[in-house]
């Protein structure tokens, strides 16, 4: 017995509507074309499926027997065809990255736009979080890559520098107008004027190794401590103090009116990517890294 999916669907449509006219409209066929297809189907199986009259189209006993079988065949074959079509259609691949808030709130939007053009089949999912959580996410596999200033080496992770950076002094526009443009010696910094990150932060630990200590006899003023560089930059802009920050703070552009002054001697602090050791970069990650480098260069890092 020869029958096609098209013939089975035609049979089911006529049985559902009890009308060749309505069934033909549903299938976007002419009534004559549908009638010819059903007659050919009946000839192939050797049985009449419908009793035709001017008033109604009714299933014969053979038609009633065939109906559930035909419905099951159409459902199963249709499902299989949909699965095959889905398997042959390229699916969007996902890249999961962790980025520190300073970068996420500055150049990340343009990085994502560039990625969508370079790799349209990739969807980038971004987690903006603290540097320590980013490294943890790469370690446990919830992130494909992490971006930030990373200090602590971890087994199973690969660290690569993306672009060079250094520690600089952030000053308010008013303060900067009264200062020289030449690099400032670390020894000339006033520790009491500095707004700082928590002492447990590796960036702050690096800073504290270079900032001069107050004499033991001097009263140590309470430090203004904030957890995020964005908060520190806002405080500096308001004239509430100065801060030593990574030079990639320049990526924030005109968001905060602060001046970044070089410090001497230079203290390097690279912006880096961490990934799992032994894992090759995907096309999506390569596009993300390239776009990040370009955006950082364009914005003055």
UniProtKB/TrEMBL annotation:
<dbReference type="InterPro" id="IPR036388">
    <property type="entry name" value="WH-like_DNA-bd_sf"/>
</dbReference>
<dbReference type="GO" id="GO:0005829">
    <property type="term" value="C:cytosol"/>
</dbReference>
<dbReference type="InterPro" id="IPR005119">
    <property type="entry name" value="LysR_subst-bd"/>
</dbReference>
<dbReference type="InterPro" id="IPR036390">
    <property type="entry name" value="WH_DNA-bd_sf"/>
</dbReference>
<dbReference type="GO" id="GO:0003700">
    <property type="term" value="F:DNA-binding transcription factor activity"/>
</dbReference>
<comment type="similarity">
    <text>Belongs to the LysR transcriptional regulatory family.</text>
</comment>
<dbReference type="Pfam" id="PF03466">
    <property type="entry name" value="LysR_substrate"/>
</dbReference>
<keyword id="KW-0804">Transcription</keyword>
<keyword id="KW-0805">Transcription regulation</keyword>
<dbReference type="InterPro" id="IPR000847">
    <property type="entry name" value="LysR_HTH_N"/>
</dbReference>
<feature type="domain" description="HTH lysR-type">
    <location>
        <begin position="1"/>
        <end position="60"/>
    </location>
</feature>
<dbReference type="GO" id="GO:0003677">
    <property type="term" value="F:DNA binding"/>
</dbReference>
<keyword id="KW-0238">DNA-binding</keyword>
<protein>
    <submittedName>
        <fullName>HTH-type transcriptional regulator HdfR</fullName>
    </submittedName>
</protein>
<dbReference type="InterPro" id="IPR050950">
    <property type="entry name" value="HTH-type_LysR_regulators"/>
</dbReference>
<dbReference type="Pfam" id="PF00126">
    <property type="entry name" value="HTH_1"/>
</dbReference>
